[in-house]
């Protein structure tokens, strides 16, 4: 019985380590905004595009308009940083990773990660 318990524990630990390894190596593929509009709610997406507009709805809560060559979409996110200093103007190129969400019959992305690719000058 003790040997079975040790074996089960070892297999469980190996499984957890494998999941941790895979979670760091697997990445969300880059999609266009138009492709993301047809996805299901809560699916994870990665987008690249230019900033159309930037609005602060309340302290630490922002909406970012993003466009690529196919369409436009709103990106919703929370941040303790003052991003208006980072986003100097429209045309800033960003990469967004987040989940699809619907609000008022409109598709938007709840951002998990935002990466500044190129700040327009």
What about the largest sheet? Answer: 5 strands, mixed, barrel
Q: Radius of gyration, rounded?
A: 19 Å
Helix content: 10-25%
CATH architecture: Beta Barrel
Beta-strand fraction estimate: 35-45%
Overall 3D shape: elongated
- Number of helical elements: 2
Q: What is the name of the CATH topology?
A: OB fold (Dihydrolipoamide Acetyltransferase, E2P)
Give the strand order, joined by hyphens, for the main sheet.
1-2-3-5-4
The assembly state of the depicted protein chains is single chain
**Ends apart, CA distance between termini:** 68 Å
CATH superfamily (homologous) name: Nucleic acid-binding proteins
- Mean pLDDT level: 86
In N-to-C order, the SSE pattern is HHEEEEE
User: What count of structural domains?
Assistant: 1
**Which structural class best describes the helix and strand composition?**
alpha+beta
What's the level 1 CATH class? Answer: Mainly Beta
Could you give the count of β-strands? 5
- Residue stretches low in confidence (pLDDT < 50, at least 5 long) are none
Walk me through this protein's architecture.
- There is one protein chain.
- The chain has 121 residues and is of the alpha+beta class.
- 23% of the residues lie in helices and 44% in strands.
- It has 2 helices and 5 strands; from the N terminus they run H-H-E-E-E-E-E.
- It has a 5-stranded mixed beta barrel with strand order 1-2-3-5-4.
- Strand 1 and strand 2 form a beta hairpin.
- The protein starts with a helix and ends with a strand.
- The relative contact order is 0.18.
- The mean pLDDT is 86.
């Amino acid at each position: 019985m003790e040997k079975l318990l040790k074996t089960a524990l070892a297999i469980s630990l190996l499984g957890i380590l494998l999941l941790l390894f895979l979670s760091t190596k697997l990445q969300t593929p880059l999609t266009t905004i138009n492709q993301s509009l047809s996805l299901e709610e809560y699916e994870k997406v990665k987008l690249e595009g230019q900033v159309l507009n930037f609005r602060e709805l309340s302290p630490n809560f922002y909406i970012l308009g993003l466009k690529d060559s196919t369409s436009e979409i709103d990106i919703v996110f929370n941040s303790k940083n003052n991003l208006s200093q980072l986003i100097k103007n429209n045309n800033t190129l960003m990469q967004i990773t987040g989940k699809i969400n619907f609000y008022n019959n409109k598709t938007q992305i709840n951002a998990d990660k935002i990466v500044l690719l190129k700040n327009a000058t």
